[in-house]
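Throughout our pipeline, every protein is held as a single compact record rather than as scattered files. Such a record has a labelled line for the sequence and another for the backbone structure tokens. This encoding replaces a full spatial description with a residue-level series of whole-number codes. For reference, a complete record is included directly beneath this paragraph.
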Amino acid sequence: MLNLKIDKMKLTMRYRTIIASFLALCLGVLTACSDSSNVSRNDLTYDDILNTGIANTCLELPDSSRDTIQVAPGTQYAVRDLCMEPREYFVKEEPVSKRQKAEFIQGKLLTRYTASLDQIQGTIDANDDGTLTFTEIDGIDFQPATVLLPGGKEVPFLFTMKQFAATTANSTDSINTSTNFKGEFNVPSYRGQVFLDPKGRSLASGYDNAVALPGLADDKRFSNANVKEFVSRKGKMSLNITKIDSDTGEIAGVFESEQPSATDLGAEEPEEVRVRGIFYGRIDSNA
């Protein structure tokens, strides 16, 4: 009798294991097949977003969103909740010989979950000549990032669109899926004025110079590292609107920007970084 009860218990536990495995498999299939694109970030809690990377992504519109937004000359429209999500990074490398041309090498982003720009506010002005002017005002409009190249080189840069001012090339009476904004923006210094380099040098604090022999302090070979600079450089960007929902005023599309990399307060020559990705925003007639 005791052996029979033990056998029944083993059989029951085996069936429970099989049933549990089957239910886990069904749950995994249902989760994988569910359409996560229909889930809005507004419906998620802080715990749902924490450490998932969702906060680093921009909202997207369906491919069928091909509407237009009519604009009136002399009118200003507000751009709200603009989000810029980088997806590809390239660094321009100089050729080894004069016969070769400089080309952009694709790199891998080392910075996790903090690459996108978000909550950016701006305006779109409908000019009298029919062109449109986009102006960035404020928001989370810069993010420090580092790109790893195939050879192992790390290139830090400040991904930004600060004070972005762009216009359309052609005249139009609407914002449509052929609207392209091209313009320039400011790239602030990657380092702050009180940042100390490995030798304790800085622009507003630390040592003025730090070399092994005092007589070499004025040597031109060390002047770039000794004499710090806080310079804002220029970058250029194009925004190509590809999707529009006229009912909600939502727009989405792709962007490409080129900007200089970090110089360690003037100690290094800036490199040219190209960033490609997608963007999302809302246009409001109440500027």
